[in-house]
Amino acid sequence: GSSGIKSTSPKAQARPISSTASHPRKVPVQKSSGHSKVSPAVRSQANNVTTSRPIQESGGGYDAKLVEMINSVIVDQGPSVKWEDIAGLEMAKQALLEMVILPTKRRDLFTGLRKPAKGLLLFGPPGTGKTLLAKAVASESDATFFNVSASSLTSKWVGEGEKLVRTLFQVAISRQPSVIFIDEIDSIMSSRTANENEASRRLKSEFLVQFDGVTSNSGDLVTVIGATNKPQELDDAVLRRLVKRIYIPLPDANARRLLLKHKLKGHAFSLPDRDVESLVAETNGYSGSDLQALCEEAAMMPIRELGSNILTVQANQIRPLRYGDFQKAMTVIRPSLQKNKWEDLEKWNREFGSN
Ligand code: ADP
C-alpha cells in the first residue's frame, strides 16, 4: 500500500526512552528538564509529533540518530486510511475492532481475561489489503503507525538490525498507543535454518525479547501486526506470540463488486449492471491490487485510441469506459497468484488461523 496514516499524539501513557534498554520499565518517567542531552533535531522531531515530553537520553542506551531515523522514516505520517476505504473483509475488521481498537478506547473494560492480544498476524495472498487494514487500525485507534518492511530491517541498517529493533520498540513505547506493522514478516522471522547467519539470528531473538517486554507490561499499548503470504515459513517462536492469526483472503464476488465500483467512482463509464456482473464473475482469483491494475489498464484504452489528438482533445470529450476495455485489459492484467498457492494458504488457515 502506498497511502499512509496520520500520526497522532499519544497521550498520558507516553514515556520517554531511557538508557536502560534491557529494563526500560524500571525507570521512572522523566520530566522534560530542558537540559536533556538529546540533540535539538531529535527533540524538535519528538515535540512535533509526540508529547510535550521530549525523548531523553540519559547515557548512551540508544542511538539518537536511529531514533531520528525511526521517527522520520518508519513512522508513517501520510494521510489516514479509513475503515470505509477497505472493501469487504468484514470478519477481519470485526476481529481487529475487538482486538485493537476497542481496547485503546475502553482500557477499563479490557483487562484480565479480556486483555487484548499484543501480537497478531494478517496472512493471505499479496495485494489483498493487509497493509491497508493495519493502517486503518492505527488511524481508528489514534495510534502511531510504525511501518517496518523486512527489507528496511535487513538492508538499510546492515548489521544494525538488532539495535534498530530495540530502538524501535523503545520509540513505540514512548509514543504509544502504537502499532508496529512488519510487512513480509516471514523473511526476517523465518524458522531457524542450519545456515542462518548470526546477524539475523540476533535480530530475531532481539525481536522476541522486545515483544515479550511489551506483552508483560499490561500498561503498554503497543500492538505488533505482522503480514505475510508465506505463514508456513514463520518461526515457531514468533508464531506462538502472534496469537491471533487472521486470514485475509482474495476478494469474493461481493468484495470484487465493491472494489470495482469503488475504483471506478468518479470515472465516466457506461457499464450496465449486467456487464458489471460479468466482470465480477470473470475476475475470480484477482486480488484487490490486481483489480486496481485492471481498472488502470482499462482506463487507458480511450486515451490510446486518440493517437496524436491527445494533445488537443477536451477532457470532457474522452469517451466513457466500456465493457470491451475491461475485456482487453484482462488479457494483459492476470491474477498474480496461482490457485494452488492460495489453496495452501487456506489449508494453513484451517490449521492455525483464528477465523
Ligand atoms: P497487501 O498488504 O495485502 O499486500 P495492500 O494493503 O498493500 O496489500 O493493498 C495494495 C493495494 O490494493 C491497495 O493500495 C489498494 O489500492 C488495493 N486493495 C487491496 N485490497 C483492497 C481492499 N480490500 N479494499 C480496497 N483496496 C484494496
What would you say this structure looks like, in words?
Helix content is 46%, strand content 8%. It has 355 residues and is of the alpha/beta class. α2 packs across α6 (161-174). Bound molecules: adenosine-5'-diphosphate. Adenosine-5'-diphosphate (ADP) binds at residues 1, 86-89, 126-132, 227, 259, 288-289, 292.
List keywords for this structure.
microtubule severing ATPase activity; alpha/beta; elongated; binds adenosine-5'-diphosphate; 355 residues; disordered N terminus; five-stranded parallel β-sheet
What's the helix and strand layout?
Layout: H1 40-49, H2 64-74, H3 90-105, E1 119-123, H4 130-140, E2 144-149, H5 150-156, H6 161-174, E3 178-183, H7 185-188, H8 198-216, E4 222-228, H9 236-241, E5 244-247, H10 253-264, H11 273-282, H12 288-305, H13 323-332, H14 339-352
Parallel strand pairs: 1-4, 1-5, 2-3, 3-4
Helix pairs in contact: 1-2, 2-6, 3-4, 6-8, 10-11, 10-12, 12-13
Bound molecules: adenosine-5'-diphosphate (ADP).
In whole angstroms, the N-to-C terminal distance is 24 Å
Query: Which parts are unreliable, with pLDDT below 50 for 5 consecutive residues or more?
Result: 1-14, 18-60
Number of strands: 5
Order of helices and strands: HHHEHEHHEHHEHEHHHHH
Rg measurement, Å = 23 Å
| Category by helix and strand content | alpha/beta
Tell me the number of helical segments per DSSP (H or I, 4 or more residues long): 14
Percentage of residues in DSSP E strands: 5-15%
Strand order of the largest sheet: 2-3-4-1-5
Give the % helix.
Answer: 40-55%
Strand count, sense and barrel status of the largest sheet are: 5 strands, parallel
Ligand species: adenosine-5'-diphosphate
Shape: elongated
What is the residue-averaged pLDDT?
A: 78
Family: Belongs to the AAA ATPase family.
Keywords: ATP-binding, Isomerase, Membrane, Microtubule, Nucleotide-binding
Region (Disordered): 1-58
GO molecular function: ATP binding; ATP hydrolysis activity; microtubule severing ATPase activity
